Amino acid sequence: MTDVARLAGVSHQTVSRVINKHPGVKPTTRMRVLAAIEALGYRRNSAARALATGRTRRLGAVTLNSTLYGPASTLYGIEQAALESQYSISVASLRSNDRPDVEQAIGRLVDQGVEGIVVIAPLLSVIDALSDLPTDLPVVAVEGDADGDVDVVTVDQTAGAQSATEHLLACGHETVWHLAGPTDWLEAQQRLAGWRATLERAGADVPPPLLGDWSPQSGFEAGRLLARMPEVKAVFVANDSMALGVLRALHEHGRPVPDDVSVVGFDDIPEAAYFTPPLTTVRQDFGEVGRRSLALLLDQVDSGPRAAKRLVVGTSLITRQSTAAERAA
Predict the structure, then answer these.
(1) Cβ within 8 Å of residue 43, ≥6 positions away
(2) Which of 60, 220, 232, 252 has the least C-beta neighbours within 10 A?
(3) CB 202 within 8 A of CB 209
(4) Is residue 109 a contact partner of residue 62, using CB atoms and an 8 Å limit?
(5) Per-residue confidence (pLDDT) for residue 20, from 0 to 100
(6) DSSP classification of residue 308
(7) Are residues 247 and 102 in the same domain?
(8) Looking only at Cα atoms, what is the longest distance across the chain?
């Protein structure tokens, strides 16, 4: 930093203000310092900064060892929000979902000197493990327990399922079948609850839900069963990957979508618009989840203990060609 100050003809403090984006620096001075940084290839020494300030500017993220679109997109959203706030992220992937593994993952991050942790693992077993964390450790759970003592950022899964079910009912279908996700996932539970409540409010029959594991294969197996049932005319699937399997099974059994059966998914994965037919689905704003999660975490880092806040991010229904009005018999 001393070399940068000498080349730019400014003080050491001015270089520090430019690096930390302090507003009280003249534009011409800022440009001169940035040019000197570029010329010298200067990189800040994070270890020295941590010793001087007591702040590592490093946060932790505990996440599932999974390539599922939801957790992966949430992690990316949090990493981008951290980058914008000049923080780095250390990631600890869970090898299993039991309490000891969750505690070990959090312990590894604490040993690395993280200032706070975001937990992206919306399973009941993981949420249970968070109840015993020290109260002075800043923690935010994505899709966590709203009744717990940890700050939570959640997508309104129930409202998203409601919009999907209402859309299918508005197409003229008498009822809507549901392929749900794994029972130990909070998101699956909330989507199931939203679907069921919407049918009950409409006075429609509530068919028995089918269970999947988020994979296209489980969607295909459930779709084969649904395809053999002529009374099935509308299906709400708890994620887009399983919806892909359902579409394949319906096609193979001669049940054209949407002429014979309408299908709605959840997530709006990048491929959803290119399914055959393009999939009507519920979009989640993972970028907003990342920004709100990081804001809550940094508020704890700066201000103290958790306050058990709960922030809700809305969803939007994306209508494509996999749904249509029910044809008259």
Answers:
(1) none
(2) 252
(3) no
(4) yes
(5) 66
(6) -
(7) no
(8) 84
